[in-house]
Amino acid sequence: MTETDEIDFEIDPEDLEGGPGTERELGEPCLLVDDLHITYRVLGAKRIGTAAADDAKGRRFLRRLLAQGRDQVGSVREIPAVRGVSFTARRGESIGIVGINGSGKSTLLRAVAGLIPPTKGAVYVAGEPSLLGVNAVLMGKLSGERNIMIGGLALGLTQAEVRAKFDDIVEFSGIGDAVYLPMRTYSSGMSARLRFAISSAATPDILMIDEALATGDATFRQKSKARIDTVREQAGTVFLVSHSLATIESICSRVLWVHEGRLVMDGPAEDVCAAYKGFVRAKRRKS
Amino acid sequence: MEENGLARMGVRPSFRDYVRELWRRRAFIGVLATSKSQSRNQNSYLGQLWAVLTPLLNATVYVIIFGIILDTTRGMSNGIAFIVIGTFMFRFFDRSVVVGADSIRNNLSLVRSVHFPRAVLPIAQVLSELTTLLPALIVMIGVSWVSQFFPGQGPVPLDWSWFLIVPAVLLLWLFSTGCAFLVGRWVAITPDIKNLIPFAMRFLMYGSGVIFSINHLLGDHPAAKILEYQPVAVYLYLARGAIADEPTIPQDPVMWYLGVGWALLFLVVGFVMFWRGEERYGRD
Fold this sequence. Notes:
With 287 residues, chain A is of the alpha/beta class.
């Protein structure tokens, strides 16, 4: 993974005019994360160090076979993805999460949404969070139309409500008649747009967005920014994970910087983004 | 924390809340189930026609191998009907357990994107098997009826008892859903168990007399009673009693009581077990 991918300047800040609106009055706390730990259990993963040991010369064939066998049988590796994160979010806040690849951003977001049970610590929340991820494929074999119904029902809408919002969702996503084709035929941008339209149709109390805005074109980005603002105006909270600092700076008032599963910095968007940019530049120079 | 209006996330809801939430998602279960059974036949020219063609071809294979070539059903008045009903009903149960076992893992992206009671998934999976069973049932009944015109096969008269296939299938469906809950939880937490399922199913298949008559083979053997009253054998008995006209399979109220009892027992125990694991699904 090259570090040059990390800052994405592709998005022009002009696409997302309007600014984050930091002056907005903040409400009472609606989310409290208390010493959150998430450890993934990976079955059948190679143990660290065995690869090097295998290469050691003079090893007997049998012993090498045994060493390899140990990796294949009963090997469990614990991977700490989030290690002890605590913060509080208030109503009407929009919070960006930045960090390099593999730093635990998406895991943090999912855990905060209550979709991955915490290994240790706890998340307290008022209202129902809704997560919107680019890689959360609903069902690729089914048409977009079917997926809208499934997604809407999964979010807790009734069938009548989904039907009422159907045209709105299709129009917002801008995919037109393609909504009747199976979702596996969609481009990544199309399906990201449809997912965003579905997830934000229910106007959740807490909206969590995982990289979704990076996939849309300029028009779509503008539309989605408007929708995020609507959620915030209805006293909701928005979380946004993105590699695009331009997107984060234009939408978020507050930014959390996560590195190796720990919270490095938590503060106003400009300060954290500046510090993060400095960190990435320093890292790039080193490599 | 509760007093600030903040509720802890990822905690298993109380049993009553869980059931209420599940009931609220019943439309979701229905749509998920029908979508899954539709998508199964989507990538072919004949499309949904395969929902009928697949069971028809299956029945043909069984009839040719077991009914005509092997003649495994000595002592039966109509071996073809016996085998076709047995294999179709067992296939539904077998498929239900297999898809139930994978219900969390196969829908991980859904589990990790949206909140809903996870019991929706095994229920929807088994329900989708039930929707594919319905066209198969028509084929099953049709083939059973036609079989009486084959040489050496006894009569399968049109009878009011045919309607009993409906409660028999419903009971088997409830029982299968209970089993799907159990294996769904076990496999979600210990994936290795999935590899044991085919063997358990094979045991059940041979132990329930799907393609041969247990009574005829075992006679007065002490194990015969256990094999006769275990759930899968009970449901095969009920389905055969409804359609086929075998002198050895009379209508028996005891079998109906057992059928209801097994279904309720597995459904309740399975559901409670599944609910107790709720906060652990989706971590890996």
